[in-house]
Amino acid sequence: MRGAVLYGPRDVRFEERDVPKINKPTDAIIRISATCICGSDLWPYRGIQPVPEPTPMGHEYCGIVEEIGSAVTSIKPGQFVIGSFFASDNTCPNCQVGYQSSCQNRELVSTAQAPLMRVPLADGTLVSTPDVPSENMIPSLLTLSDVMGTGWFAADAANVKPGVTVAVVGDGAVGLLGVLSARQMGAGRIIAMSRHVTRQKLAREFGATDVVTERGDEGVARIKELTSGIGADAVLECVGTQEAMMQAIRSTRPGGSVGYVGVPHGVELNGQELFFAHVHLHGGPAPVRRYLPALIDLVWNGRINPGKVFDLTLPLDQVAEGYRAMDERRAIKTLLRP
Ligand SMILES: [Zn+2]
Q1: How far is the CA of 271 from the centre of ligand 1 (A)?
Q2: Three-class secondary structure of residue 10 per DSSP
Q3: Residue 45 C-alpha to ligand 1 middle, in angstroms?
Q4: Is the pTM of this model over 0.70?
Q5: How confident is the model over 165-217, as pLDDT tens digits?
Q6: Which residues, including other chains, have CB under 8 Å from residue 45's CB and lie 6 or more apart?
Q7: Phi, psi of 335 (to 5 degrees)
Q8: Residues 266, 294: contact at Cβ < 8 Å?
Q9: How far is 98 from 100, CA to CA, in rounded Å?
């Protein structure tokens, strides 16, 4: 079979890879219905996080169970399933409190940009849909594997509640789905921070009530202006840079919360500033598994359509163009079909 392999900066190849096999009785093999490229795939793609050797890519996936190991009991071949980028047992103390991305037995899944993939800890990791979905529902179900679950975690970690004012830093796919999540959680006002017209439009479609185009200190000043000088109750940080993190913390009101889900690159916090800011900080790799059942239900019943975030669909063999389009910001997010 052929799949995506990253060789170095801006060098993704679609080439022969080993067909995955059941290695442990707790594994499952799934036939990928759709996969995609993550904003976090762009860090190694751009060489900011160098790969030591040619590395298979992809951690967002959904598909049909092809084969299960002898110990797997909760899913069976033929079912349509979705899993997270961290495989988890869903039984350890960390999983039990809803932090499956800190599972004591977690395994990073990173071979999804291929026709077949092995999923470890299948019972704990994979959640099946009520039936095999129609084609048009697949993009939305795919987002639950990471990007939508991460946007949802950002909103949850920022303590979004009915009626509150939310600001979202970052207009990538996660930020946009953070807007959708905040809307779904009943936020009263949602301020999207974006300088790109097409992304602003999608943010409004997902529920943003205001758009702020300024960033850094000017962005903070605009948020303060829009909130009677106080700051937002809940701020979602969906980028991972120093500027974005400071923009998020400084845009939050005293007593408010920052949910941060952008993978930090060079972010450092000043203790004094943090002390006097009086904000709650919570974030990290999203425990997507916790939200899968509820989010599958929302998609299945047509209540949310996060698949709109894909503005480019390519056959898997054109994966290199998919990375280029996202790197050059010609695409928000690329969906790949094997
Ligand atoms: Zn666990």
Answers
A1: 32
A2: coil
A3: 30
A4: yes
A5: 999 999 999 999 999 999 999 999 999 999 999 999 999 999 999 999 999 99
A6: 6, 9, 10, 12, 323, 327
A7: -95, 140
A8: no
A9: 6
